[in-house]
Design brief:
This protein is 16% helix and 27% strand. By secondary structure, the protein is of the alpha+beta class. It has three domains: 22-56, no CATH class; 87-295, Oxidoreductase, molybdopterin-binding domain (Sulfite Oxidase, Chain A, domain 2, Alpha-Beta Complex); 314-455, Immunoglobulin-like (Sandwich). The model is unreliable at 3-17 and 32-41 (pLDDT under 50).
Length: 459
């Protein structure tokens, strides 16, 4: 072997490499200059490209070393750099021991209309139950011709369906009746999530068992320590109520009711009883604790609204939000305003966006799939003016003919002592420096001597 020739070849290759690096630097300098020129005409980005940015020019450590073997995480995990994207909780919405409590979804970080199972909104009344599916049973009794007790294997023998729907706690936004309590989208509107569900329609099982004509109500009862129970009118049961065991392509997580839960599309999330163990059919409702002392709305008259189930048409701006501000934008930047809309009444047909707190609206664009009783994405392209204050307000409408009300319109109906079913428009204030603040836009609100609420002289 000619060692001298090999050394010459090596030196030659090294010189070639130096030449390639210099050539690459020249290429990026020219590309950067062209990019800045091109972007000046579109205003999509105002930041200058850096020809000698080390992130471009230098080899990165992750590209020069072995990665993890495919055997490391047999159940995949998110990147460690996404450590802030988690469900969150607060003492103000807990019983003290976090067993009858909530964990809210970071909807500002969500993409599309599907919430990952690990971030799905969680609510329990007695803590998360851990049930052996081999020992779990579902009893169906009452006004049916053939009462039955089903194992999980027997339940899954019925023909299955897969549907995409949101689940929303009726208290979503409930802390805002008197005014904004949290400068956070996650805590203001994170009491909901959306998923692809797999299971069997309840009506399919009832076709097999036989439903007696006098059956007008169904009781759903959970197998956890709280024995959560809710009654549902038979019309909804025979429409689209499901018993589900699959979520986003895998089995339910324990906090979502593993091994089986009820899904009542579009209606209050607490009706979607988890760890489902019993369905009972009767001619009258049961008046369970969660539909008498809880999940009712006290009107200004002192009377309570009961058995109002569907989550009304609603929407929110997800970007910008208090968690995703505009402090990094420059004057003239074009930015996409994004949000979510949903309705338990049907399908979203449109969303409007206002920049002045609801005095004037323009039409936003619906994005991606538009499905009934499901999250719908919407967006609007906006040219940012540095130093300009804005009040962003979204307003959704559905194919049932409903439009989101103003805060004043809703307050006149149920006052400010309510907890549930708040679907009034929501507003973010864009400050001069690009920071985002949660605000409410209200007209002059007053009370008559008899306690009746009035606004602008109107009852």
């Amino acid at each position: 072997m000619d060692i001298k020739k090999s050394q010459q070849d090596l030196e030659s290759a090294s010189n070639d490499e130096d030449s390639n690096i210099n050539g690459r630097r020249d290429f990026f300098r020219k590309t950067a200059a062209l990019s800045v020129t091109a972007l000046a005409g579109t205003s999509l980005l105002s930041s200058e490209a850096k020809a000698d940015d080390p992130a471009i020019m230098e080899p990165q450590k992750w590209g020069t070393a072995w990665g993890d073997p495919v055997t490391k995480n047999l159940y995949g995990m998110p990147s460690k750099y996404e450590h802030n994207v988690t469900r969150r909780y607060t003492k103000l919405l807990a019983s003290g021991n976090y067993r009858a409590s909530i964990a809210v979804t970071p909807i500002h970080e969500s993409s599309g209309i599907i919430t990952p199972n690990g971030l799905f909104f969680s609510r329990s009344h007695g803590g998360v139950a851990h049930i052996d599916p081999n020992e779990h049973r579902l009893m169906i009794t009452g006004l049916v011709e053939k009462p039955i007790v089903l194992t999980m294997k027997q339940l899954k023998r019925y023909p299955s369906v897969t549907r995409t729907h949101f689940i929303e706690c009726p208290a979503n936004g409930g802390q805002e009746w008197r005014g904004p309590q949290y400068n956070s989208l996650q805590f203001a509107k994170g009491f909901m999530s959306c998923a692809e569900w797999t299971g069997v329609y309840v009506k399919t099982i009832l076709e097999d068992l036989g439903l007696k004509p006098e059956a007008n109500w169904m009781l759903a009862e959970g197998g956890d320590s709280s024995k959560m129970g809710r009654t549902i009118p038979i019309d909804k049961v025979l429409d689209d109520a499901m018993i589900v065991w699959g979520q986003n392509g895998e089995a339910l997580r324990p906090e979502q009711g593993y091994p089986v839960r009820l899904l009542v599309p579009g209606w209050e999330g607490n009706l979607c009883v988890k760890w489902l163990r019993r369905l009972d059919f009767a001619s009258e409702p049961w008046y369970c604790k969660e539909e008498t002392s809880k999940y009712t709305v006290l009107k200004p008259t002192g009377k309570a609204i009961q058995h109002f189930y569907a989550n009304e048409v609603n929407s929110t701006v997800t970007s910008p939000s208090p968690e995703i501000d505009w402090t990094d934008l420059e004057d003239g930047d074009i930015v996409e305003i994004e949000g979510l809309a949903w309705s338990g009444m049907g399908t979203i047909t449109g969303v409007d966006i206002s920049f002045d707190g609801g005095n004037n609206y323009v039409e936003a664009k619906l994005k991606g799939l538009v499905l009934p009783k499901c999250w719908t994405r919407w967006s609007y392209m906006h040219t940012y003016k540095k130093g300009q204050e804005l009040i962003l307000t979204s307003r959704a409408m559905d194919d049932a003919g409903y439009i989101q009300p103003t805060i004043d319109e809703e307050t006149l109906k149920v006052g400010v002592e309510a907890v549930y079913h708040r679907n009034a428009v929501e507003s973010w204030k864009v400050e001069k420096d690009g920071k985002i603040t949660h605000v409410q836009i209200r007209s002059q609100l007053d009370r008559k001597p008899n306690g009746e609420l009035v606004i602008e002289g109107k009852v």
